[in-house]
Structures are given as structure tokens and as C-alpha cells.
Amino acid sequence: MSTARLSLPFIEHTELSVARRFWGSMIPQDLAMDLGTANTLIYVRQRGIVLNEPSVVAVDQETNQAVAIGHEAKEMYGKTSRNIRCVRPMKDGVIADFDMTALMIRHMLGQVRARNIWRRPRIVIGVPSGITQVEKRAVIDAAMRSGAGEVMLVDEPMAAAIGTGLPIDRAVGNMIVDIGGGTTEVAIISMGGTLYSHSIRVAGDEMDEAVQRHLRRSHGILVGIFEAERAKLVIGSALPSGQSRSMKVFGRDITTAVPRQIEITEDNVREALNEPISAIIASVTTAIEQTSAEVAQDIMARGIYLAGGGALLRGLAERLQRETGVIFHRAADPLSCVVRGVGTIADNLKTMRRLCIV
Predict the structure, then answer these.
(1) Taking a C-beta distance cutoff of 8 angstroms, is the pair 344, 162 a contact?
(2) pLDDT-flagged residues of the chain (< 70)
(3) Other CB atoms closer than 10 Å to residue 290's CB: what's the count?
(4) Where are the alpha helices (DSSP H) in 236-347?
(5) Could you give all domains of the chain from N- to C-terminal order, each with its CATH number?
(6) pTM of the full predicted structure?
(7) How many of the other CB atoms lie within 10 Å of CB of 90?
(8) To 10 degrees, the CA torsion angle through 10, 11, 14, 17?
(9) Of the candidates 53, 335, 32, which has an alpha carbon nearest to the alpha carbon of residue 154?
């Protein structure tokens, strides 16, 4: 008799635990995604950023099956056989190849939710502010096709401002410049709303292509897009650094078609980057000119915040400050600002869902 009384609570507790685990697996899991041109980041509620992979897919053209996705696919870029094609399915911040994007999202979601096969997660995705209705629908359809139960979209500048820690709900002008892989987003935010927003398709990718064009024109060598990106990251700058930095790059001679190695300097890369940087400066200047006197006063007092991978370019904040006359602050971790902001919305959907545009 006493044994039965002792075992009953244990049985009830065990059954309750099993039930909780079962029904817990049925509850949608909230995720946040920065579906970027260069990299895709995923944030899981209460766990933080769990995935950061290049937005690259290697696919077998005969079977149409993915051979590699993310870092492994990026390593294969430009080095595959004729049967395997490496694709960057995102272009200028939006979907360029729907099927490959859906495949990439499905694979990445599988990596972060493999243990919870019952769940169809709710996903909040950051998208460029200049995205069209057709492009919004493409993002939603790709995510739904990849296993999402519900998809919400939020403007990347708003997400970047939240991820940077700006007081978006206060009656104060917050200006954010998010330089990603495909787009540069310039926005002014106050009282939980966007006062001004503009997106230009000049960002990290355009900088890499500018380096490619410059080396082809001035040195007669054709380098791959990731070799151009490497040159930008290693010795690229917006202003002279005062150091004689140089590096070797590999490519193909455009006259002889023979592989060739040359040494380039910081000055070479800075000259190549001048055009895209000037376009970003023009966009920032236009935004400042469009603001009211009261908001302009806030911006002058508080400064402008830089987010996105492009913010890491040496001397960029200083050059923007020199050209505009406004102080620029670089976010502590500019690469993850958008996904952290979208993640904050996913963590607080009840109170912050109003910030979603879909």
C-alpha cells in the first residue's frame, strides 16, 4: 500500500514530463533570420545566434541536388566540374534564384531544428527597405516552402537599429546606415516608426566588383570575386592609413590567359573603392537633407550609427564624418546587428510584432 502511494507521484511526474516534451515539440519555435546576399544568419529564441554561413549553394546539375551549402560551397566556388554549379542565390538583398534560395533555407533550418521534427517554426526575416511586393512574396514563399509555419518580415534598417541598441521608441531621431552585401540601407527612426528610409544597391558586393574592374583595367589581370573580396578585407581602406600595405593576388592574364600573380597596394584598392563609397556618402547626405530641423538637431547631437559588414572597412567612419560633418559611430558587432535586432523582435513578438511590415 505504501509502495503504491510512493510510486504514484513518480508515475504522474514522468507522464507529465513526457506530455510536456511532446506538446512542447508541437509549439512553433520562433526563429529570426538575416537572409543576406553574402551571409545568412539564424537566431533561435533564448539561444542566440546559432548559424552564420555564406549564402552559397553548390548543386549537381544532373540530379538538381545540393552538393554543399554555406562555407563548404564557398570553398568550391569557381573550382567545380561542369556537372556542379555554385550559385549565390541572393542578389542585391533579394532572391535571384528562388529554387536555390528555398533549398538553402531548408538546409539551414534543418541544421538548427533537427532535434524537433514536429515543429513548424515561426520565422521573422530581415529584408531591405526598398523591397517590392513581388520580392516580399518570393521571400515568404521560399521560407514557407522550406518548412516555416508562419513568416513575418521586418525592414533591415529597423532591425539594425534595434540590434545596435538605439532607443527606437523614444521621441528622438536615430539615424542608421546598414552596409550589407547587396544593399546599403539609410534610415531615420523615431517613436517606433521610420521617418525616412532609402535603399541603394551599392554595398559589399559592389565594392568587390569595383576591385575586380580596377585590377582588370589597370593591371590586365582577371581575379575571382572572392579574391577581390580578400583584397578589400586585407588592405582595403576609405582613407590613407599611413602604412605601406600590400599583398599578392592571383588571377588570369587577360591577354595571354596564363595564370599570374601580382602585388597590389592599399592605394590600388582604395582607388577602386572610391566610386561605391562616394555613392554611399551621397545617399547619407540626401537623407540628412530630407530631415526636419528638429530631427537634424538630434542627429548632429547623437551622431549616425554604422552597421553591416561594410562598416568594417578601414577609415570608412572617418571619411563619412569628414564628408558630412556628422560624427559616425560603428556598432560593436556590425555583422550581426540585423539578426540580433530581428531576434529581439522574435523574442518579444507580442509587443514588437507591430514593427513587422508583413
Answers:
(1) yes
(2) 1-28, 113-119
(3) 14
(4) 266-289, 293-302, 316-324, 337-347
(5) 28-157+339-355 (3.30.420.40), 168-203+274-333 (3.30.420.40), 204-273 (3.90.640.10)
(6) 0.85
(7) 25
(8) -100
(9) 32
